[in-house]
Amino acid sequence: MLLLRQGSQYLAIGLLQLLLDWAVFVVATALGMPTAPANLAGRTSGAMLGFWLNGRYTFAGDEGSRLGWRRFGRFWLLWLAMTALSTLLMATVEARLGLRWAWLAKPVVEGGLAMANFFLMRRLVYR
To answer: Are the C-beta atoms of residues 54 and 71 closer than 8 Å to each other?
Structure first.
């Protein structure tokens, strides 16, 4: 039951994160920013929102929210790995297929990474 509750909340928060991440990415690249830094800006904005919401609601325990500097450090280590993979994938799509395809691919790439990230966050970050 806990996994179902956490999964549904993670999905809802993840959709908010994805919308923010994607919007920042599209606006930044449309204004001429290269793909890699635009992806970094989008993922950073989404990550800040997601860390707080997931720690406060999704993975909160009986003692309350699961935030704090130790969890924040673990979160950023995981975020760095996922961001490196995301940026590599987005830069590859943009280089091979063009910017418009990168805009369309962004939600697919981030959605795929989010599935793995849920279990990693549950076990490594918000434990």
So the answer is: no
Token pair of 48 as six digits: 């800040």
64: β partners: 61
Tokens at 26, concatenated: 């599209």
Q: Which residue do the tokens 């790439």 mark?
A: 109
CA 32 to the chain's CA centroid? 23
Closest CA to 39 of 112, 76, 104, 88: 88
pTM to 2 decimals? 0.83
At 69-87, the pLDDT tens digits run 998 999 999 999 999 999 9
Cα separation of 61 and 44, whole Å? 25
